[in-house]
Amino acid sequence: MIAEAPHGTAPSLFGKNLANPVAMIMAGASVLGYIEQEPAQLASRAIRESTLETVYDGIRTSDLGGHRHHHRIY
Prior knowledge:
The structure is a single chain. By secondary structure, the chain is mostly helical. The protein is 43% helix and 0% strand. The protein has two helices and no strands. Helix 1 packs antiparallel against helix 2 (38-56). The longest helix has 19 residues, at 38-56.
């Protein structure tokens, strides 16, 4: 099983607090979803849903039309 965010390392963004962490968070949720145990499944669902709710509520990085830096997404 391999789970990774669908983007590169973006070295040009290093130190600028501009990178969007959502893909990495969702990749982590996918890894948990692969585990066939209820606690892992519940954690996966909670991570996915809370991440999507955060974006829906307008807490977004600039690439999604927001004004938040990645360290304020969490």
